[in-house]
Amino acid sequence: MSDPMTYARYLALDELLAAQKPLSDRHDELLFIVIHQTKELWLKEIIHEVGLARRLVAAGDLEPAYKALARVSRIQTIMTLSWDVLATMTPADYLSFRGYLGTSSGFQSHQFRTLEYLLGLKDDSFLRFHADRPEALAELKAALETPSLYDVAIAQLPKHGLFVPEAVLNRDVAQTYTPSPEVEAAWLEVYRDTKRYWELYQLAEKLVDLDDALVTWRHKHVLTVERIIGGRPGTGGTEGAGYLARTLQRRCFPELWSLRTRL
Questions:
Q1: Nearest CA to 247 among 106, 152, 128, 129?
Q2: SS3 54
Q3: For position 247, what pLDDT does the model report?
Q4: What whole-number distance in Å separates Cα of residue 119 and Cα of residue 110?
Q5: What does the DSSP 8-state code read for residue 195?
Q6: Long-range contacts formed by 162-170: CB under 8 A, 24+ apart
Q7: Model confidence at 137: pLDDT above 60
């Protein structure tokens, strides 16, 4: 007879709580590890939800996708708030163990890059960081070569009688999406007649919620890095806050932002 299920066994708590392995004796290193491990767990759930939303939208089941996308936005809020916890660590606290990090960096998170790919921010230059992790590399490549959430959303526009060029519908989905005036015009029609295109309008606003939350997370990341290390280079060789600040210009769903000027 198998042992009865317990809280600890169901959640694999012994393994989970043994996964924090500070390399120094500095008090704040545990916080640093917990914050980043928690981020990776939330990213796992976000990828799970975005994958579901992408499949539902591709199948034309728009309303069921709203729940998954709303859940992602709530998780993003929690992730953004976590920077405030990390910011309780002073520069002296962080510098006391920073040397132990070596060349490791959040820049190398394959799950964050997978999420970017799923949302349409495609850049195959990140693949090289995961050559030593076959499963992570396979996950990244699959996301890179699969139509993004925005690709499948755009593909729904013609099914509602809105024009989208064949060049957009049949584009190389492994490449970064290039904004299209015709796609903007189609979404603009949705926003000008919300009653007629209610499902598409709601989908568009859920996507904007997600994009908004992602930029907010990036902004808080920049501020936290500036607060703790100022303008120092990042541990992974990036420019640190300078690099992160440039990412604030990225938009996963560009026409959903640009159309607002024309409403």
A1: 106
A2: helix
A3: 65
A4: 14
A5: T
A6: 162/186, 162/189, 162/190, 162/197
A7: yes
- Give the type of residue at 37: Q
At 104 the three-state DSSP class reads: coil
pLDDT at 235: 67
Cα 207 off chain centre by: 12
Q: What is the largest CA-CA distance in the chain?
A: 68
Alpha carbon of 128 to those of 95, 137, 146, 196, 206: distances in Å?
28, 9, 19, 46, 32
The pTM score is 0.93
Question: Which alpha helices (H) appear in the chain, and where do they start and end?
Answer: 7-10, 13-17, 29-58, 62-86, 91-95, 110-119, 134-145, 149-156, 166-169, 181-192, 198-229, 241-246, 255-258
Kindly state the percentage of the chain with pLDDT values over 70: 94
Q: Which has the closest alpha carbon to 207: 178, 187, 177, 185?
A: 187
The tokens of 220 are what? 């808080």
Place of tokens 């076959």: 134
Return contacts of 189-196, CB within 8 angstroms, 24+ apart: 189/162, 190/157, 190/162, 191/259, 191/263, 192/263
Rounded to the nearest angstrom, the gap between the alpha carbon of residue 110 and the centroid of all alpha carbons in its chain is 11
Taking the CA of residue 128 as centre, how many other CA atoms within 13 Å lie in the half-sphere pointing to its CB? 3
Whether pLDDT at 1 is above 60: no
Number of Cα atoms under 13 Å in the Cβ half of residue 166: 0
